[in-house]
């Protein structure tokens, strides 16, 4: 896999983001930022060109150097198209054209799993809160424990052998934020929760793409994309990133709702950054727990929990 492969894969990811006919500048900016974090120096230009032109996705995929790279591009595109709910007709057509270029596409079972996770992304089902509890402020340490548990669970998903298990990370994060708001007496819908996550830079498509890049490329071999994976292996880096993002989102949301949703966007971003630094210090201390959770977890059980089963 080459640097050219990396650029093509990010191009396909950006095309997947606009496959429904809409061009969300924040979403594209988040994809470019995720690619930059992964080491692609010219990500902004690549994403901008991809959103403004209509290169044949089949020709792009065919120009990748290996079938493994084509499958990686396809899985990332599937994740991006399903990031905000089940893919629509235009997105399905885009994915079908892309899948025709690879010898071994995503299986029927994996497609069903993707659809299940995508549906959950649009319909957040937080655990029921007793009416007596909902009327009272959270007990000291209650939300801290919830946030740490969810950060560990999302990190554990990065360690599972299922390449698509990271698709459950966003629904878990949204569910956590919804629960935090609920415990502070806030009545929220899915759109409000997603907007809060997007405020701190956790766009659905970008987060899924970054996680899949780390997991898929890291599994293919260490350092195949040069600087794109940095010094850490893909799986290890992904677990740390997901832990930090979930931990920071949870604590920033706690302060946001505790202060009556009065914090500015700049304040929220500053809080998120501060809690990310705290999480980076904390992660080495909980790595053993992350691994234990991963050994006792599978994607099906997480989906069942998200559905309230």
- Strand content bin: under 5%
Rg (CA only): 19 Å
Order of helices and strands: HHHHHHHHHHHHHHH
Tally of alpha and pi helices: 15
| Biggest sheet layout | none
Helix content: 55-70%
Overall pLDDT level: 79
Q: Which stretches are low in confidence, meaning pLDDT under 50 for 5 or more residues running?
A: 219-233
Assembly status: single chain
How far is the N terminus from the C terminus? 41 Å
Large-scale geometry? globular
Number of strands: 0
Write the layout of secondary structure elements.
Elements: H1 3-17, H2 25-37, H3 43-52, H4 57-62, H5 67-81, H6 89-99, H7 108-122, H8 131-134, H9 142-157, H10 169-183, H11 190-199, H12 204-220, H13 234-258, H14 265-295, H15 299-306
Helix pairs in contact: 1-2, 1-3, 1-5, 2-3, 2-12, 5-6, 5-12, 9-10, 9-13, 9-14, 10-11, 10-13, 12-13, 13-14
Account of the protein in words:
The chain is mostly helical and 309 residues long. The chain folds into 2 domains: 3-113, TerB-like (Orthogonal Bundle); 123-306, no CATH class. It has 15 helices and no strands. The protein has helices at 3-17, 25-37, 43-52, 57-62, 67-81, 89-99, 108-122, 131-134, 142-157, 169-183, 190-199, 204-220, 234-258, 265-295, 299-306. α1 (3-17) crosses α3 (43-52), α1 (3-17) packs parallel to α5 (67-81) and α2 (25-37) packs antiparallel against α3. The longest helix has 31 residues, at 265-295. The protein starts with a helix and ends with a helix.
């Amino acid at each position: 896999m080459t640097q050219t492969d990396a650029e093509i894969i990010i191009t396909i990811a950006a095309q997947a983001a606009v496959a429904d006919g809409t061009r969300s500048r924040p979403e594209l900016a988040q994809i470019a930022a995720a690619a930059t974090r992964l080491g692609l120096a010219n990500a902004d230009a690549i994403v901008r060109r991809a959103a403004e032109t209509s290169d044949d996705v089949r020709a792009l995929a065919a120009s990748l150097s290996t079938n493994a790279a084509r499958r990686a591009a396809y899985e990332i595109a599937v994740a991006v198209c399903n990031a905000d709910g089940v893919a629509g007709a235009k997105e399905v057509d885009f994915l079908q054209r892309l899948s025709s270029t690879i010898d071994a596409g995503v299986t029927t079972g994996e497609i069903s799993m993707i659809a299940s996770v995508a549906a959950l992304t649009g319909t957040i089902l937080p655990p029921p809160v007793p009416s007596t509890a909902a009327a009272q402020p959270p007990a000291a340490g209650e939300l801290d424990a919830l946030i740490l548990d969810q950060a560990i669970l999302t990190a554990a998903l990065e360690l599972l052998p299922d390449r698509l298990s990271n698709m459950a990370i966003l629904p878990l994060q949204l569910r956590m934020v919804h629960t935090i708001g609920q415990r502070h007496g806030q009545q929220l819908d899915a759109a409000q929760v997603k907007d809060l996550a997007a405020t701190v830079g956790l766009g659905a498509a970008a987060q899924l793409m970054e996680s899949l890049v780390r997991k898929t490329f890291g599994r293919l071999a260490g350092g195949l994309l040069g600087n794109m994976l940095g010094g850490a292996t893909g799986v290890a880096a992904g677990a740390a990133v997901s832990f930090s993002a979930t931990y920071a989102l949870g604590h920033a949301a706690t302060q946001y709702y505790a202060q009556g949703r009065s914090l500015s966007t700049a304040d929220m971003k500053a809080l998120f950054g501060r809690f990310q630094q705290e999480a980076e210090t904390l992660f080495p201390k909980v790595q053993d727990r992350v691994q234990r959770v991963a050994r006792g977890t599978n994607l099906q059980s997480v989906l069942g929990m998200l559905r309230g089963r």
